[in-house]
Amino acid sequence: MPITPATQAATALGLDFEATQHDGPVTSLPEAAAARGVGVNDLVKTLVVRRGPDDYVFVLVPGVGTFSWPKLRAWLGVSRISMPDAETAQAVTGYVRGTITPLGATTAWPVIADASIQGRRISIGGGAPGVGITLDADALLAALGADVADLLS
Hints:
about 25% helix; 4-stranded mixed β-sheet
């Protein structure tokens, strides 16, 4: 099993998960799903969203989906949100873009997940290039104390 801060955090949280690692970059959602042995609807991306100065949230959405900016702003109760640049995202999470996950991040920012991932087995980033963590979404959301909302466009 690949050892990353994310897999170590998943273990520490007592999550039952499978970590996979593939060589080389993937260039599409179907390639990433195939490399992890899951369907494209089971890939979940972690986005970092800035809601204020030094205030971020992790947003979990299906890889095939896009969150609605108005819905997320309304849910957060703020009028402005933005996506940080790659350097800032790494500084506030400890992960380079493409490997970001709330598991093992350097700061435990709040987590908001789209409701569509509930009740499913999902695969999220594993904290290193080519590493994925596949697990029960409900167990992950409970372990992270995540809020769940209708976020998709």
